[in-house]
Amino acid sequence: MAAPDYGGRAMLHALLVGIDDYPDGTSSLQGCVADVDAIERLLTLHPSGGSAAQIRVLRNHEATRQGVVDAFRAQLGSAGPDDVALFWYSGHGSQQPSADPGDSDAKDETLVLADSRTEGGRDLVDRELGALITEVSAAGAHVVVVLDCCHSGSGTRDLDRLGIREIPARRDVPAPDPSFGRLPPRQSHPVIEVQPGSGWAVPVGRHVLLAACRSDQTAKERTIAGVRRGVFSAALEHALSTARPALTYVDLVRSVAVLVRDGAERQDPQLEVSVDEDARAHVLAGTLDERPRHHLVSHDEAGWTVDAGALQGIPAPVGGAAAGAATLLDLFPPGSDPASALPIGVARVVRVGPASSRVEPSASTVTLDEHAAYPAVVTAWSAPRTPVRLEAGPDDEVHQYLADSLDLELAGPDEAAPLAIAVSGAGYRVTDERREVGVDTPAADRAIEVAAHMARWYRVRGLDNPGTKIDLSAVGLDLTIGDSSGERQPAPRGEVLMPYLGDTPARFVLEVTNRTSARLYGAILGLSESYAIDGSPTPGSVTTAIDPGATLASFGGQPVTVEIPDDYWRAGHSRRVDHVVVLLSTSPFDLSSLTQGRLEISPVRDEGSAVVDALHAEAFDGLLRSVRTREFGEPGTAPVADWAVLRFALVAERALGGVAVGDGRSALVPGVHVEPHPTLRATVRLSSQDFATRDGEVPIVPPGLADDPASVSGFTFVDTRDGAEPVDVLTLADVTGAQSVTRAQPLVITLDDPPSGDHLLVTGLFDGVHLPIGWLDGNRLVITQLPPDERVRSLGSAIRLLVTRVVRRVRGQSATVAHLALATAEDRAVTTTEDVGRIRARLAEKAGGRVLLLVHGIIGDTRGMAESFLVPPPGSPLADRPFDVVLTFDYENLDTPIDETAGVLRAVLDGVDLGGHGHEVTVVAHSMGGLVSRWMLEQPRRRAPGPAPADALHVRRLVTAGTPAGGSPWSRIEDVAITGITFGLNRVAAGFWPAKALSVLVGALEQADTTLDQMRPGSDLLVDLFAAGDPHLPYTALVGNTSLIERPQAGGFVARVVAGLTGLLGNAVDLAFLGRDNDVAVATTSGAHIPAERSPAVQVVTVASNHFGYFASPAGVAAIAAALVEPDRPAALSTPGPVGTGSRARR
C-alpha cells in the first residue's frame, strides 16, 4: 500500500490535550499545558493549505475522559479524505490489567485523564484510542497521534531535576465502556529501527504514532528556556518549526532523538506505523511545508513585539546593549516575502520572553505603521552563555572569572545547569552533568577555560539557523560505510551505527553534494566525546567552495575509521559517539576559529591533570564574525550571508573482549573477576543491554521488570562516562559443559565493589521464558544454571544473561527478633515507630477503639500490608474499613520456631497494654503469619471458664490469607521465591502481582539454605494446631487459586513457564501445577484444612490471587475487605501461661 499523497491540499484538524493538575492521590506535572500551548502557537502561526488550522485544546480539568472522547469524535471526526487529524497528548500514562484474554502481556496501556483516578473514574485504554482512530481514519484522513507520556520503565538518575510522566498501574480491571461497543484486539505496530517499541499497540485504524520513549523507559520533563516542558514535546516542536519541506516521519524522529538525548537520559523517541509505507510519508501530509519562514513584528500598548521567544530559539541579548552582542532582525514590508524582498529596517531584541520578545527598531529604520505587521528574519545574534552551577564553596576568584566569561554565566538557584564547578582535592573539578564526566584542574582560571571549552563544543554541536533560505532538500548528504565498494546511503539526521567487525572498526566517507543553483561554501566538522572540534574532515581544514553539481567529500574521499581506543575499550567501554556537523554558507567563513583540542576527561582524575592543548577562548566568535553578525543600524542593500547546518552522529560499537572460564581466575574488567570452574569452558564478555538487544534475535529484558520500577535500579559492571547504556549483560560464547553449572557448582563472578545494600538478580532465557538463575551472595554473583545458547549476530551462538539491580525493601537484620510498631500515614506515605511509650500512649488515647494487627508471612515484611490499609489506592474497598490504631508485627520468620514466635507476639502485645483499654482487635495475617497468629489464639487454651479478665485481649476477628494450615510441600524458601520471581518476570497473571514484590522475593533468595520443616504436611506443629480447642472466634481463611486467573493450556506460554520452573526446581513444582488448585505456594486444600465443627464456623473463601497478591490484587483486596465485616462478638483471650509447650517439633 503506497504512502498517502495529499498534494498539499490537506486541512489540519488538531486536538491537543495537556494535563498538569491531577486530583489528590495522583502526582501532578508542570509542563504539559505548556506543551500544548506551544504546539497551538506553532499550528496557528503556520496555516495549512492556505487555511487556518482547526485546533481545539483541552487543559487540565477540561480533559476528562468523556470530554476527550467527545472532542476526539467532534474535532477530528470532521477531517475528510484530504485532511490531517492530529491528536497530541501530554500527561500521565499508566497501565492496567487487560480485559482482553488474548492480550499477550495482560496489560492495557492507558492515558490518565483529569478524572481517571477519581472515584468511579477510568483511564482511556489503548484499544479505546484505537477505536477512536478507526472512526476518523475510516473517512480517509491521515491520523497522527503524539503521546508524551509513559506507562512503565525504570527510574532516572536525575529525579530531583527531571519530572517523570508516569504513575503506578491500576490493579483493578474496569468493565468495558459500552459506548465503544466491542473493542478490537490489540495489534503490534511495525517499529521503525528501535526495539522494543513504545508499547502502545493501538489496534486497527491507519495512523502514525510518535511516542516519547520506549516501553521500558520514562518520558521526562525539565526546565527549557525558563519554562517547564516535556523533553519530547519541546524537541518535536523545535523540529517541526524548523523542518524542511517534504520531511518524512523517519527523518523527523531521527532529528528529535538527537535533541531529546541532550535533554534526558534513557529516553528514545519512537515512531510506529500501522502501514510500513507511512513512515516515509511527509510529516502531517505537508501541511507545514508552506508555512512562512519568518516571524512577525507588531505593535501593542507596551511597544514593538516579535511573535517568537526563547521557546522558538530567539537568543537573549548577551553582554548588555553592545552592538556586537545584539540579536538583530531584518524587517520587511507588510505582506511581503522575505525570500525575495529587500529589508526596510533593522530591530534589536531587548528582552526575550518564553513565546514573544520585545524589540527596538533602529533609528535609521523607516517609520513603521503601528497598525501593520512586519515580516522579520533573525540575521544576527550573540552566542548565549551557558549556565554553570558552583558547588562546594568555590572562592571569589572563581566567581570573578565566571563574571568575566563570554561563554558562561552563573546559574540561578532554580535553574538547571549543564555544567558544574566544585572544589576538589586537585583544586577544582568541572563536571558535565549531561554526560557525568569531568576534568580536574588545579587553578580557577583553568577551570573556567575547561567549562568554556565544554560549552563551545555543545554550542557548535547544536548550531541551527531556522531562518535559512538555503534549500537543504537540494543538498545531498550521502554516507558510504566500508571501502569504495561499500553501500552508499543517504545520511540520516539522527544516528548511524558503525559496528566493529571483530576488532576491525568500520570506515566511512561522507559526501555533500550541492544540487542548488548557487555556489555554497562548506565544511565538515567532527566533534568527539573528548570535546574536540576537528576540522580535518574538510580537505585542507579550510572552507571549500561547492559549485552547483559539485561534491565535498570528507577527508578527500578517503575512507576513515571511527575507533574506540584500546585503553578505553579495555576499561569496559564498548560505545563511542562522534558527532558530524556540516556547515554551509553563501559566503566563505573562517573554519579554523571553530576548532578546538580535546580534553582529558574521566570519572576520576589524578591531581594536576590538564587540558591537552591550548583552548581557543574566542573560537566561537570567529563564526559569529564571519557568518552571522553585522552592525546594528542601516539595513544592507546586499544580501546578508546565509548559512545552514546538517548534522548526525556516528556511533561506533565494539564488543568488549572476553576472558576464558577455566582453571584460573580471570579479570573481565578492572574490579570484576570470573572465578575458576571445574568443567565449564566458555568465553565470557560484558556488553550493554542496548547492544545485547540488537545483537540477539530475542529480547533479553523480562517484560515483568517494567511492572515494578520502584524495585529496579540501574546496575553496571563498568562506570560509564559517556552517558551510554549501563554495561549489565554477561555473554558466554564457545560454551561447553553448560550442564555442569548447578547450585553445587555455580558459575561465580566476583565484584570488588558490589552494590551497597541492594540485591542483584541474574536472569536467562529458556525457550522464551525468563528465569531467575543467579543472585548476589556477599560480593559473589552466583549463577546456578545456564540456559541453552541462542543465535547472536556477532558471535554465531551464545548465552546472554541480564544482571539487574533490585532495591532492598526488607527490614534489615538487628539483634531484636521481633518488632511491634505503630503504623501511621502522612502525605500518603506510611511511617512506623517501635517506641513503646508512643504505642502505649496511642492505645490509651484510643481506648475502646478498633485496633488492626498485621502479621506478615514467610517472605517479606508488613510494609505492603500496612500501605494497603493506610494509603489505599483510589477505589479500594479497604478505604471503607478504617481502624483507630494500626499495629504491625515483623519477626525473624525462618530461624525461630513458629510457636516461639507466637509467644513473642503475645508478650510484645502485653508489653504495650493492648488488653488494658477495652480495644477490639482484628488480626490480619499472611501466609506463615497466620500460623503464628492461630498458635497465639488457639494453642494452648488456658482461659478459665466464666467472664474474661479485665486485661483480656479482645480479638474481634481473625483473617488469614494464603496460610498453609495443612502444610506446604516447598522444602526451601528459595524455591518459593524463584517461583514467584519467575511468574512476575514473565507476566503470568501480570495484573495480580503486587508492586514491589520483586524486591521482597529477590531478598528471600539470600536465605537459600533455610528449610521449612514446621510447614511440611504432617509436622508436629500442624497436627497440634489442628487439634487445638475452639477459640469461638470469627475466622475467615482466604485461599488463593491461580487457575481462576489463568489456567495453563497444553503447549501454551504458561505451560512453558511451568516447564522452565521444573527444570530449575525439579519435583518441587509438582504441587503448584499438577492436579491441585493453589496460589503458587499453598494448595487450596491446605489453606482450608481447619476443623469444620468450630463455632462460629470458619469461613473459607477462594480468591483469584497468587500467594504474593492478596494485599494488592483486586480480588485479594476485595476479599479482605469483605472479611472485615463486623462480627457478632469479640473473643476474649486471657493472659496465657508459657506458650509453645504443646508443640513437639523443634528445629
From TrEMBL:
InterPro entries for this protein: AB_hydrolase_fold, DUF7379, Metacaspase, Pept_C14_caspase
UniProt GO cellular component terms: cytoplasm
Family matches, as Gene3D superfamilies: 3.40.50.1460, alpha/beta hydrolase
Domain Peptidase C14 caspase positions: 13-274
Pfam family, one: DUF7379
GO molecular function, one term: cysteine-type endopeptidase activity
Gene Ontology BP, a term: proteolysis
Boundaries of every DUF7379 domain copy: 852-973
Domain of life: Bacteria
Official protein name in the record: Caspase family protein
Protein's organism: Pengzhenrongella sicca
